[in-house]
Amino acid sequence: PSRGMVTAREIERQLSAMGRPHRAGSVDGHSQSALRVLGATVPDLRALVKDVAKRIKGEPPEFVVGLAADLVDAGTLEARQVGYELLGRRRDALATLRTRQVEALGRGNDNWKSVDVFALEVAGPCWRAGQVTDTAVRRWARSTDRWSRRTALASTVPLNMKSRGGEGDSRRTLDICALAAGDRDDMVVKALSWALRELGAREPAAVREFLTAHESELAARVLREVRNKLDRGLKNPR
Length: 238
Hints:
Layout: H1 8-18, H2 42-55, H3 61-73, H4 77-89, H5 91-94, H6 99-106, H7 112-128, H8 134-141, H9 146-154, H10 157-160, H11 170-180, H12 186-200, H13 204-213, H14 220-232
């Protein structure tokens, strides 16, 4: 966007200044990404998002969407995170998005941090509101790309997590979980466990029934963590 007080280029400069050399280059110390990783800390990112959100409070929804798109195109992990979180704070901007725009914002996500922030702040809320179609999320779940499959599962979390406005949606959640039941990619297995644990907090009977029906397909980790959460309140109790 050319108008307004804030530009993606300005935010990128701030993020670069926040970078810590010992944190730069990898997502979490070992995972690699085609996105540049500047090494900004979580507290620094949160402070920047809060500041930018305040500065663009009076800007119209299309400005916020455009700014987020520019941040996604900037090519750094941190800029994407800022863009997604800014959208998540502006319900009026999120409300303008449809499937094609959401998919464009998620294009190029190739690591769990970018995928999860995108799913929690953008894709999941838009799907919950009916702005992203069930058909699209099923397509992500069937993708040959591990990150698209993880996106589909992580997008179920806002359907069910109370703190994110979820009211519980076993139909859509379990539809996507069933598509991932036999998946053994580690990033997908972890996301499947997460999706089922979140639904289990709302609809435990539905999750228990799902575990029983798909027991022969599900990874041992999923069965263990979800049952632990249902029975003992923690995924990995001591």
